[in-house]
Amino acid sequence: MSYLGAIISLLFIIVAGRLLLKKYNPHAVLLVSGLLMLIIAQVLNYNLPTLKDPTGFSGFDLFRYIKESFSKTNAGVGLMIMAIGGFVAYIDKIGASNALVYVAMKPLKFFKKKPYLAASLVIPIGQLLFAAIPSAAGLGLLLMASMFPILVNLGVSRLSAVSVITATTAFGIGPASAITASATNIASVDTILFFLNYQIPLVWPLSIVMMITYYFVNRYYDKKNGFEKEIEETKEIELNAPLIYALIPVLPIILLIVFSKIFSIFSVPISLDTTTAMFISLFVALIYELVRTKNIKTVFYSLKTFWNGMGNIFKTVVTLIISADIFAKGLISLGFINGLLDLAQNLGLGAIGIGVVMTVMIFLASMLMGSGNASFFAFGPLVPKIANKLGVESTSIILPMQLSASMGRTVSPIAGVIIATAEIAKVSTIAIVKRNIIPLVVALVVMLIYHFI
């Protein structure tokens, strides 16, 4: 009987994964699966998660879990992610994202005689941009408009160009990332400390590995396919804002670093959280717009873009977090964690073994779902309980898990960024995935070795 719940929960994971692969709505799949697991746990007399305010009737309590998840999420990580989404939408509207990409891409034009080196250099530059513009599809499309024609003219194939552009979204890091926000909330660590002390030390060697791997993989496939240099009209990215606007997308990161615990610049300590930094940066952007347009009515009206951006993130990402939270509660109630730990102990696996299994599981789930958010939000909340039972810090397990979530998305043929960039490049999504799979698997293996050993 002790393993029955774990077996049932594993079946739910398989069925949920299958439904997501068939493009069923992930919110509905995770929410309904979670509720069904909670019902089965009730019937089997398993221990359900504790409610702060029970209704008095077990049938209604199932839906009280949803209400409490909404309350908890919207008051914390949900508001943070919505503020990020609103800010990203606003900087895109006023042209600040384009200005940042325009500035970042300038150096690559000097590598005319080393096209594959230029292509590989797009990866670290793009990853820096991704920390400030945390929309995989959004950044991918910006780079397709600005960088893609340049790379093709330098002498790489369309597939090589689009592959490195999608690779820039392989690591969802930085305080503006929804996955980072969720990970730091789960692990109860400061966002900027997590970014500087955990994410950057792990990501920079992985970026070097990916640059080297993409250099050889793209050159090999272009030669194998008999690629001949294509000439495509290179168009400068159309700037609809002054270059100084390039500072706006990185302002939240600058604020969070300057006013973090790392620096003690002021006699009276000043502490900023991500949500506050986003609102400060928004009002700085509004002042920029007021100076540029000199039309207060237009500037006030433009604020609607921010609220719309927050709303869009709520209906997509925040509701997904809530659905995934119910899914995680269902797994915990059926004893999935205990079953996983018992299996690990029987196989002789410790914290490292569990960490590797969870990381690979999320990577594969992201491939199947086409969404790093969906896979991480489903399994991320399980980490504190696993870490507590194994006697290790949550960050040691959650860091590779959150990175593997965005890595898996980069090799998914149904991911939004892959579909969007493939359409513009006029290549198939499968062809992009074939270019991406070797560098990303190599990076995944290196990450597991580097982090756990």
Give the structure's gist in a few sentences.
This protein is mainly alpha-helical. 74% of the residues lie in helices and 0% in strands.
How would you sum up this structure, described in words?
The protein has 453 residues and is an all-alpha fold. Helix content is 74%, strand content 0%. The protein has one domain (4-452). The chain contains 21 helices and no strands. Helix 1 packs antiparallel against helix 2 and helix 9 packs antiparallel against helix 20 (416-425). The longest helix has 38 residues, at 296-333. The model has no long low-confidence stretch (mean pLDDT 84).
Name the descriptors:
single chain, 453 residues, mainly alpha, 0% strand, globular
Count all strands and give the number: 0
The chain-level structural class is: mainly alpha
Instruction: Give the helix tally.
Output: 21
Radius of gyration: 23 Å
Sequence of secondary-structure elements: HHHHHHHHHHHHHHHHHHHHH
What is the number of independent domains? 1
Oligomer: single chain
Please give the alpha-carbon distance between the first and last residues: 36 Å
Report the β-strand fraction as a percent range.
Answer: under 5%
Rounded mean pLDDT score = 84
What ranges have pLDDT less than 50 throughout 5 or more consecutive residues?
A: none
Biggest sheet overview: none
Shape: globular
Proportion of helical residues:
over 70%
